[in-house]
Task: inverse folding
């Protein structure tokens, strides 16, 4: 491990804002605290600048010189981390995407500015056959893992087979492949039984990062062969070791505290990391993230709420902006769920879609910092551009209710997980939905529950009306049809049909359209996904409410801040002025 | 006394078994499946994965069989493996306990010292302004919500004034001191790193204040009431008649006797603070037992939930025993049997 304590680093000066306070509050609290501290030295002369602790064992030096030559400082990111594992084939979460992208490189990358543009990473080039069933990748012969050994086709085969066989949450990404051939050390050929035009975007997903198979097998006991789901015991090993070729390596992970990465000094690629060390700090509360950014204790705050942004205005040391994201929150209407008789009527579901005040929901939940979204395929993905955005039309909604089998309305259960994601508080949102639907006589019985309880119910017998969220795993639109559409194997086809207690709602037309889309390319593919998007809209099972925007808040000397569709944040792309 | 202590220690395992049993049963009464946090939402519909996970974590067995296995492992010192962190629960607990212990000890120190000080002032200045101020302080500390207080203090003293450091046990870009006790203040002192000791101590001020203020209120009211009882006792009159100074009467006689009930409160409060620092730890990004317990409960991490319950139970049993012993040591009139 590099001893950064002895290195000459530039360090960002503290950015303590010292605005005058309401005197009474300050005085009262100051009195209390000084009393509590029993005379402790409350140094009004200034705060402790980030990294200026001249204590032994401290890292970083406080010169106040932001990046004027020399090496960059340690980058500190405040984030409410959702990590549960660091095993690259078992991981599946937003923070996992950042970690995996930094440590385990993929064959193909995605241009952070355009999710539909693929760029080379471990693979220099790739070829797809005409019917999208065979994908040939040529690896860069210069590519090496952090230990200096070359990245070979055997590592790619091992990593992808382990992903498939371990049957983790991201294993579905490898579904349908029939063989992975490695004719030589630099060539990988993946064959699918059916056309799969989504595979190139899938290869760019962070979950398909490549692991040094020899190390993982020898030191971690990792297994890629069939049966890995029961036999592989390497998860513990991956908590304290990494074996990738990415710009960073894992230094340590402490659950509930921090994830520390160190720059891979053997990195072979063209965009090596600027920051020698990255620490992702667990900071659950968004207000605490904001305060630590203002104080200069962290460089990036990843989950600041839109409401708080005004507090950063005028601070020359901080950049804050909202950017579009592909994350969204939706309500789901399940006609097959137990107790959802009213929702089985197409007119009722259509009326519900029309009764919702989409603009009001955006205002209430994210203070307007979001967009409306037409279908489950989010804005920016192919198949979304030509669909009509939803608008409230109460007159038409009431007319549809009058023409339905439930002209006097009905009461229905609305169980939902009590979460706050993408800046949307579900309690607030569902109260607004409840208020809107009352206008057409649909009474929602709101039932907030914890997420595990929600999952149990939705899988067992469905939930008539619920709310959930979604973020993309890769950049192909097929994932939305496969998860939300009325197609074979879709999670929501099953849930909307009543889960285990019912039968999936399958639309043969959507099945056909999806098969065609997976075999198509270019404009034809776009047209097919547009048709699929319209079909999912017409089914009125998934009703997107908020395509939220992300708040990016970071130190002004950080450059190239971005939001990547595949990877969230690519740490090696970040720079320093 | 030794016999009494041994008897209490002999009963302790039975109490712990009771605590574990209750925790074991209650966590399984929750109508939700812990497998969601193990295999993920998407895989809950995959019977192969669900079966493999059930087998791996022993959830495929009947409830009595699960209980028997758990208790058998526990008897051998195996607390199980956390569903969530995939680490040994014992390792998780021992890694996080020092953080909570350091915070709790600081809160206890503040609560007791400030509580006694305020209580003495309130008793001596009975029904005068200092008494009213002390009462107001006590009432406020007992009634103010911890999360609100924590956020306000951070906003005022960290974000706005910059007088005190923010959340977390260590300054940014700082490595922890060499591990001896896990209490950073102690370890940094042991390493001779006084500047780090000072930094770590400053970081304790706000969370310790938030956690300990409630105790300050209780202790101050108790001291006040006890001192007022003692002030009119015969021995106090005798002491004054002997010509002792008022200060000496108060400190050496009245306060000494008035402290007795406080021992009980402080002893029980230590356990309560240690296991009840959930919100404080969350607000101040303090990676201790409290935040571990919250995550364990949220994800239905059965082994971790049971581990926290055992730890909490053991702490309460030991602190309660220590309180009784201290009481007997402090007051020769009390005989433990």
Result:
């Amino acid at each position: 491990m590099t001893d950064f304590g002895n290195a000459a680093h530039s360090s960002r000066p503290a950015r303590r804002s010292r605005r005058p306070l309401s005197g009474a509050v300050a005085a009262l609290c100051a009195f209390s605290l000084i009393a509590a501290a029993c005379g402790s030295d409350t140094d009004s002369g200034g705060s402790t600048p980030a990294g200026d602790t001249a204590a032994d064992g401290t890292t970083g030096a406080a010169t106040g010189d932001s990046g004027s030559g020399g090496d960059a400082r340690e980058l500190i990111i405040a984030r409410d981390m959702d990590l549960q594992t660091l095993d690259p084939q078992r991981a599946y979460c937003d923070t996992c995407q950042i970690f995996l992208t930094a440590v385990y490189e993929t064959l193909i990358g995605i241009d952070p500015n355009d999710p539909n543009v693929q760029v080379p990473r471990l693979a220099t080039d790739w070829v797809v056959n005409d019917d999208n069933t065979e994908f040939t990748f040529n690896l860069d012969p210069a590519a090496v893992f952090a230990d200096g050994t070359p990245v070979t086709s055997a590592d790619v085969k091992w990593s992808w087979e382990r992903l498939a066989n371990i049957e983790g949450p991201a294993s579905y990404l490898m579904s349908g492949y029939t063989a992975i051939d490695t004719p030589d050390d630099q060539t990988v050929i993946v064959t699918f039984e059916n056309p799969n035009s989504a595979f190139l975007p899938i290869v760019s997903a962070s979950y398909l990062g490549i692991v040094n198979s020899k190390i993982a097998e020898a030191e971690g006991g990792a297994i890629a062969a069939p049966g890995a789901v029961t036999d592989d015991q390497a998860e513990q090993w991956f908590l304290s070791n990494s074996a990738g070729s990415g710009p960073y390596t894992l230094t340590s992970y402490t659950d509930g505290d921090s994830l520390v990465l160190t720059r891979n000094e053997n990195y072979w690629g063209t965009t090596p990391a600027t920051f020698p060390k990255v620490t992702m700090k667990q900071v659950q509360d968004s207000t605490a993230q904001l305060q630590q950014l203002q104080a200069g204790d962290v460089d990036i705050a990843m989950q600041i709420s839109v409401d708080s942004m005004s507090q950063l205005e005028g601070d020359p040391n901080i950049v804050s902006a909202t950017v579009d994201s592909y994350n969204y929150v939706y309500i789901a209407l399940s006609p097959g769920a137990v107790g959802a008789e009213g929702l089985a009527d197409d007119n009722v579901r259509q009326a519900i879609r029309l009764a919702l005040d989409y603009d009001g929901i955006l205002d209430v939940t994210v203070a307007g910092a979001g967009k409306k979204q037409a279908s489950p395929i989010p804005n920016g993905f192919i198949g979304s551009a030509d669909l009509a955005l939803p608008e409230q039309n109460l007159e038409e909604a009431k007319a549809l209710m009058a023409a339905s089998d439930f002209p006097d309305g009905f009461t229905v259960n609305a169980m939902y997980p009590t979460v706050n994601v993408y800046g949307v508080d579900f309690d607030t949102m569902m109260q607004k939905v409840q208020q809107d639907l009352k206008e057409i006589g649909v009474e929602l019985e709101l039932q907030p529950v914890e997420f595990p309880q929600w999952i149990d119910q939705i899988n067992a017998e469905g939930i008539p009306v619920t709310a959930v969220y979604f973020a993309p795993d890769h950049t192909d639109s097929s994932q939305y049809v496969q998860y939300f559409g009325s197609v074979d194997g879709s999670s929501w086809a099953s849930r909307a049909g009543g889960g285990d207690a019912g039968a999936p709602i399958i639309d043969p037309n959507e099945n056909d359209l999806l098969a065609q889309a997976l075999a198509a390319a270019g404009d034809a593919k776009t047209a097919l996904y547009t048709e699929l998007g319209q079909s999912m809209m017409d089914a009125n099972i998934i009703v997107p409410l908020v395509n939220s925007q992300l708040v990016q808040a970071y130190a002004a000397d950080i450059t190239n801040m971005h939001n990547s569709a595949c990877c969230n944040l690519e740490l090696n792309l970040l720079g320093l002025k | 006394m030794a016999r009494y202590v041994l008897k209490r220690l002999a009963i302790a395992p039975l109490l712990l078994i009771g605590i574990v049993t209750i925790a074991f049963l209650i966590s399984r009464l929750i109508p939700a499946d812990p497998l969601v946090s193990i295999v993920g939402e998407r895989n809950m519909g995959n019977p192969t994965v669900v079966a493999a996970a059930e087998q791996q974590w022993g959830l495929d067995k009947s409830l009595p069989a699960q209980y028997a296995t758990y208790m058998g492992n526990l008897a051998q010192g195996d607390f199980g493996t956390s569903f969530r962190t995939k680490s040994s629960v014992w390792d998780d607990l021992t890694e996080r306990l020092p953080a909570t212990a350091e915070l709790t000890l600081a809160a206890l120190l503040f609560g007791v010292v400030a509580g006694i000080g305020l209580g003495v002032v309130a008793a001596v200045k009975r029904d005068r302004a200092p008494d009213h101020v002390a009462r107001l302080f006590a009432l406020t500390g007992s009634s103010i919500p911890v999360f609100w207080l924590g956020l306000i203090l951070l906003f005022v003293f960290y974000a706005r004034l910059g007088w005190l450091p923010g959340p977390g046990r260590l300054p940014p870009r700082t490595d922890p001191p060499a591990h001896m006790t896990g209490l950073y203040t102690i370890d940094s002192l042991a390493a001779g790193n006084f500047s780090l000791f000072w930094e770590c101590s400053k970081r304790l001020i706000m969370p310790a204040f938030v956690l300990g203020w409630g105790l300050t209120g209780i202790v101050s009211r108790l001291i006040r009431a006890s001192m007022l009882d003692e002030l009119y006792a015969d021995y106090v009159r005798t002491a004054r008649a002997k010509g002792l100074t008022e200060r000496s009467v108060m400190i050496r006689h009245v306060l000494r006797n008035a402290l007795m009930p406080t021992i009980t409160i402080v002893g029980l409060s230590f356990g309560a603070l240690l296991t009840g620092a959930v919100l404080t730890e969350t607000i101040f990004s303090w990676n201790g037992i409290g935040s571990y317990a919250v995550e364990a409960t949220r994800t239905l991490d059965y082994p971790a939930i049971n581990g926290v319950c055992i730890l909490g139970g053991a702490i309460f049993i030991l602190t309660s025993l220590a309180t009784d012993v201290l009481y007997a040591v402090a007051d020769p009139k009390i005989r433990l049997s």
In short: The radius of gyration of chain B is 24 Å.
